[in-house]
Amino acid sequence: MAYEFIEVRTEGGKVGIITLNRPKQLNALNSQLMVELGQALKAFDADEAIGCMIVTGSEKAFAAGADIGAMATYSFADVYRDDYITRDWETIRSIRKPVIAAVSGFALGGGCELAMMCDFIIAADNAKFGQPEIKLGVIPGAGGTQRLPRAVGKSKAMDLVLTGRMMNAEEAERAGLASRVVPLDKLMEEALGAALMICEYGQLAVMAAKESVNRAFEGSLNDGVMFERRLFHALFATSDQKEGMDAFVNKRKGQFTHR
Ligand code: CAA
After folding, report:
1. Dihedral of the CA atoms 177, 178, 183, 186 (nearest 10)?
2. 66 carries an active-site annotation
3. Which site from 46, 66, 88, 112 is most exposed, i.e. has the minimal number of CB atoms within 10 Å?
4. What is the annotated signal peptide range for this record (predicted)?
């Protein structure tokens, strides 16, 4: 299948590799990219020869978030009616074989959330993680307020979500967000090594292991994600969202009026 915003290949006939490919926008995640990602993941999941998948980006950016330019003028009615985010982002949660995020560069906002939707994160030493949505007058809208505290605990999650600061790869590993950190030039080798090792094991056991680990912390995740989404959508009714996103698009500092 021909894709516009992702590249798809296999390694050793066993590992499906998906590379996010919107370099000029630092892999900002628009709807089409997320639809393509979902299609590619589903195709690999259905392919008996594939035992594991890797999602990666460029050296500079895994993904710098949801596409701000695309959503800057959205209203509450637009995002609520179309179930913005959910509609195109949920496919990855239905994938039953393991998906590794190989992260270099920026993994911000929806980029960090996408990495957290994968089963584990291997980070290059130049990786930077963050949930900077607060700077845009909104909150994370693809599970960030739910998955980040589960990964790094409440204090660090609050710090990141409320200040919008980035954390580097070393801090992300120490906090439990990344499972390993490796030099940038070893990132794909390390991710492939892990993927090929997983492919050696019984596929049913691998799928059962993934399903079971997910049960350890998904109990109330659906409620949390739905709650978050409604608030995320509601913030499109505020002038601070319009101001925050317009300021980003027009490369100026936002002036929030708290309305
Ligand atoms: N959406 C759309 N375009 C983006 C983008 C995004 N999330 N992130 C970067 N870009 C674009 C920039 O507009 C710029 O485009 P032009 O060259 O046409 O001007 C290009 O990518 C390169 O970006 P910068 O010039 O800003 O590069 P930089 O190296 O100076 O800074 C950065 C890099 C710190 C990542 C900065 O681009 C940035 O802060 N990006 C936005 C990060 C962000 O706020 N993400 C959250 C988005 S909201 C969200 O994700 C909601 C949700 O929870 C689902």
Report:
1. -150
2. yes
3. 46
4. none
